[in-house]
């Protein structure tokens, strides 16, 4: 089979390697489609500084070909002897990670914080194997373009749940920010997107989502004035010191600030502690998803409850993966997906 092997920053090779043999409790899955995630781009650019193909100590080492492809949908083609509940031909997706089920976080349903979690994302390959208990089944009629949104939608659900307020401001109208806005609107929330790039602002407006013009989005004081009549929680869908500082600034008193986007290389903010003490603002993070989040995601996809297809603005064949990564880094497209059939 062909697999994309990460050799170093901006250096991937599509190589011929053996098809993996599933163990007794594993499924062998033939890839159909994968979406490119910002996390994948960080590995591709070397910003995570922890991903090389030939070092098994890294979370995305030789077992995952040095990358972290996880926005996948595929077809089951082989079953291990101990697999239950799946058949050849099932259309599936799976967790990005394994979890132990026994640590204090797993016992509380927080599998995303499992103390023993391990990255198993192998999505940039024609076939991959996964322990069946971390796999989710779709109906066979699901459109793969929708199915590839299962994981990103699940992490968006996890983040949006942290904002109980009806009003939500989202920093960044990239693929994940747009997905947050679409899901939040589905929940009946009043959403305001804040984006300084004109093309992304215009894309959001084309889907009927309320977005502030770029000339306003660059000024936190102006944003605060616009949002002052209601209580707004804030999700920063993008990382970086400036974004997080702006999110803290524009959030209403008593409301949460959710740091969703990762920051690489790591950065720090200076914070007047009295700002939090007297305002009761809540600063929290959001990472990965729970099983409940994934089940809700799959249910929404099955029902075609969200216009996910409108977010896919470019597709590439697997052989064009480097071009796909470069196009995603350029930032002119929304969601980019890679096809294997």
Q: Give the tally of structural domains.
A: 2
CATH architectural category of the largest domain: Alpha-Beta Complex
Oligomerization state: single chain
Distance between the ends: 13 Å
Tell me the radius of gyration: 20 Å
Task: Determine the number of helices (DSSP H or I, runs of at least 4 residues).
Answer: 12
Low-confidence stretches: none
> What fraction strand?
15-25%
Please state the average pLDDT score.
95
Which series of helices and strands comes N to C? Answer: EEEHEEEHEEEHHEHEHEHHEHEHEHEHE
Count of individual beta strands: 17
CATH superfamily of the largest domain: Medium-chain alcohol dehydrogenases, catalytic domain
- Write the CATH fold name of the largest domain: Quinone Oxidoreductase, Chain A, domain 1
Q: Largest sheet, if any? A: 7 strands, mixed
User: Which structural class matches the secondary elements?
Assistant: alpha/beta
* CATH class identity of the largest domain: Alpha Beta
- Helical content stands at 25-40%
Overall outline: globular
């Amino acid at each position: 089979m062909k697999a994309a092997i990460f050799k170093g920053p901006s250096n991937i090779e599509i190589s011929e390697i053996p098809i993996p043999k599933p163990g007794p409790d594993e499924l062998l899955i033939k890839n159909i489609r994968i979406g490119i995630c910002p996390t994948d781009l960080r590995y591709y650019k070397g910003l995570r500084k922890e991903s090389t193909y030939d070092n098994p100590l890294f979370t995305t080492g030789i077992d995952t070909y040095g990358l972290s492809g996880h926005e996948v949908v595929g077809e089951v083609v082989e079953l291990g002897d101990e697999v239950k509940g799946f058949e050849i031909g099932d259309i599936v997706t799976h967790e990005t990670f394994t979890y132990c089920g026994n640590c204090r976080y797993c016992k509380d349903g927080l599998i995303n914080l499992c103390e023993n979690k391990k990255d198993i994302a192998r999505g940039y390959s024609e076939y991959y194997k996964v322990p069946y208990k971390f796999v989710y089944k779709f109906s066979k009629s699901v459109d793969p373009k929708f199915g590839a949104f299962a994981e990103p939608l699940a992490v968006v659900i996890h983040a949006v749940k942290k904002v109980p307020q009806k009003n939500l401001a989202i920093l960044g109208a990239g693929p994940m920010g747009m997905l947050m806005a679409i899901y939040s609107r589905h929940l009946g929330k009043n959403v305001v997107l804040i984006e300084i790039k004109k093309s992304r602002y215009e894309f959001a407006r084309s889907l009927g989502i309320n977005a502030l013009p770029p000339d306003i989005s660059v000024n936190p004081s102006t944003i605060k004035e616009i949002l002052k009549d209601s209580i707004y929680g804030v999700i920063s869908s993008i990382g970086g010191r400036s974004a997080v500082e702006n999110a803290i600034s524009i959030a209403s008193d008593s409301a949460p600030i959710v740091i969703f986007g990762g920051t690489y290389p790591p950065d720090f903010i200076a914070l007047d502690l009295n700002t939090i003490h007297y305002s009761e603002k809540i600063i929290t993070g959001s990472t990965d998803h729970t099983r409940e989040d994934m089940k809700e995601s799959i249910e929404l996809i099955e029902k075609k409850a969200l216009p996910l297809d409108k977010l896919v603005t470019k597709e590439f064949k697997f052989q064009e993966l480097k071009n796909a990564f470069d196009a995603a880094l350029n930032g002119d497209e929304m969601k980019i997906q890679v096809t294997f059939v």
